[in-house]
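Researcher: Here's the sequence for the chain we discussed earlier.
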Amino acid sequence: MKDEAVIDSYPQSQYLPFLLVLFIGSGAAALIYEIVWFQLLELIIGSSTVSLGILLGTFMGGMCLGSLFLPRLIPPSYHPLRVYALMEIGIGIIGALVLVVMPLVGGVYTAWAGSGIVSLLLRGIVAAACLLPPTFLMGATLPAISRWIETTPRGVSWLGFFYGGNIIGAVIGSLLAGFYLLRVYDTLIATFVAVIINFAVGILGLMIARKAVYKPAEVTVKTDERPAGEWAVYVTTALSGLTALAAQVVWTRHLALLVGASVYGFSLILSVFLLGLGIGSSIGSFAGSRIRARVALAWCQLLLAAAMLWTWCMLTVSMPYWPIDVTLATSPWYTLQLDFLRCLAAVLPPAMLWGASFPLALAALTAEGKDPGRLVGGLYAANTVGAIVGSVAAGLIMIYWIGTQNSQQVLVIISALSGLIALAPMAKSLGESKFQIAQTVVLVIIAAGLLSYSVPEASAELAAYGRFVPRRTGEAEILYMDEGLMASVAVSKLSDGILRYHNAGKVQASSDPADMRLQRMLGHLTTLMPANQRTFLVIGCGAGVTAGAVSIEPRVEKVTIAEIEPLVPEVVSHYFSEYNFDVIRNPKVEVRIDDGRHFLMTTDQKFDGITSDPLDPWVKGAAALYTKEFWEAAKAHLNPGGVVTVFVQLYNSNEEAVKSEVATFFEVFPHGTVWANTIAGQGYDVVLLGQAEPLTIDVEKLDQRLKSPEYAQMSRSLSEIGMYSIVDLFSTYAGGKADLAPWMSDAVINTDRNLRLQYLAGMGLNLFQADQIYHSMIASSKAPENLFIGSPETLQLLRAKIQTELGR
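Model: Thanks. This is the structure I predict for it:
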């Protein structure tokens, strides 16, 4: 009661609730910026695991530097509210400038980027140039405002509330950006909203500072006079940050399979994690001044070992098998509600414990006479350093080398050990004998070992089927499953012998006749149409069937495959070599482990044909391979007479997304064409083909080419998918830009600035409307007049077959 009366007597106490509101706004703006900046920077330096690690490390590194150095750069005599307000305005100014600077920096990067160390160095420089200035200020805000607070247990509890309020604001910003600003508008509007929030927070902060009298507290405890045992709190806080971010990386891999790896899925996962941190921080702030904070901090870490096991069991052995069929939802919003509840059930308990740890650590270190700025800044820096190590280690090393199960086991043990570290300096003060201390340590180690041993294996069925596990479990034998840098990859075999390649929690390619037809069509159209057939680029390896179809072109000299996941080439060379012509071992083929967009943007090579077979457009990051700017880059990398092809799926999508894909492609390739892969006349998927120049197809010439001995392998490849002549191949024509113009009239063009496709497609990932979409698309299509040349007899036959395929 005495502490409460003291804090209430402080003149500044009346302003603390207003500052809490300001911190909520600050957190919302920060998350909007983070989502926007990551989205834009991924377009420049790629969305590979290395690039994402660099981005995350730079972002958190800037915050760490800000929290650590602000108390050393700005003396306590400066009014903390004014410093905080000016930093918020500074963040807004820099946030607006980043949108201008980023394209300039990106231009320098793409001009100079190479491979290996040079590329990594340049990626780091780009990330640092764009992210360090604003994140330095973001990290400095909490230490700056902390000087407004007295360093008493009751006073420091308000810092915990500020920290929690900032996190709750981050939840609001994450949901606002992911579900509204970027879905409805674009990065410019989202940034503008964040800038307005920063300026509003800054101006209100300055107004409060004018009224609030500030008298710097006398600092009587110097940094080098810390009492024994403080090190344990800093180490525990760092390890707490490590386990929190490492676990988030591990769990996100599985949650993305369960809820779908769309932008909405990632927004939900991040928001629930942040919500747990915010709730836990508020509880820890309230309790920190009323209990023994260091003991509570230790218990949080010990309980986290059990809470992490809870989350892991929910993700691997429980929730994937809940009897829920997501395809039955009549609205995608119902599915999102379900996904939100699943994320809550899995992630909330440990997130609350991590959230409580920071304010409890603050309370444990509190002593009158300390500089609150240095106290908060040092502790926040320790937590952030641990977070950097955890996120980078989990994303770049642990999952790839030891898998998610073993990674989870390591994190359980680290969390238990961090609890012991927090208690170590208190052993004597607790009045326990050496035997009792040893007994406690042994019991904690045994409990941690049992919890770690209880961590179940990662679910192979979840990796293969994702959110469709309840519908599809047991339908096939899973021959292979492993966890790579970017994704979990699986191979399954049906009872009839059909092999299937799984990525992102669904079948991405297979030896099924319908899939083989599409993959071979995509490859052979890419090599038959260009003026020359020397060099080709294949974006996305998949099962390798498309790349294999490209590789058997007799005149080809070099095929480059850009594949983002290192596991894929090895897997498909083992399981799918019979279907992909053993493409990975072909001496003419070079496999580049890189984001396909990043490779294309940074290479100086030109190609006779470029074909793209990326992941579903609803998968976060995949929409960057369908933007107007990407197609313009592809066009610029074509040799004269070269072509670009891309696979567009009609299943697991909606009409708005397909319209966006097709209309964006035709925006760059106005002479483009659509080629259909149907099943008994029902729509399934299509191939888009574009060329800089107007396309003319000499049917007789290509027919003769296919009948020549050197093209026997390609002819056999086509016959295996039911195409016994060139007329069979070209009868799949489904329209051109003029045919589809009425259908595309309300299409949204997918650009780098809006990446609208991923938001449109994210609403259709559980839908099966392929046939409806296809027949709506071709409603105005007819056999073309000037596309094909050849003998009258051949052209008449071809037109008749096209009309039949179109249902005319």
